[in-house]
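Structure ticket #2291
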Amino acid sequence: MVCEAIGAGAQSIILRKGGIHEGRGGFFWKHARFFLFPTRFHEQHLQFPWPGGAAAHSVESDEAPHTLTLFTEVSFKHQLTAWEDVERLRPFHFWTPETIRERFDYTDNAGISLAFLRVWRTDPAWTFPHLPRYGGCRSWLDLPEPPREMQLSPVLSSAQHHERLAAVRSALSLS
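Resolution: structure written out below.
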């Protein structure tokens, strides 16, 4: 559902504590550009009640092929260590406060990692078979080579992207 909101242009940020495979203190933004890999973990429809995602409550088979439709570039990243900063981001995402608080308090060193994304839709969508290494709660995956004929089109115009970027940076008192 997060990918759907991002792909619809309704959200431009990701807040991450990391996947179980990173361990309690190991998440970091490993790549500046990446494909979004949609998952259906952690009862997302309860933790991320995006109004446009009502049809996304179905559970997909673990063996189903994967289809990627979004490519992203990190415009800026920031480690949030004050809950007040996280609260100021409320207008910019759809996670419930309880979900973000749980992630924020996940380790003894409270905090959560923010990435503001520039997002493009892929054309055509990229579909490839499932492999066991794509399963589980992971932040980063080694994917096959994308199709050479893939074209990218921005989800938001440059003006919309820069306006939202400025609003998020302003909410965090970042210049």
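Closing remark: The chain is about 20% helix and 25% strand.
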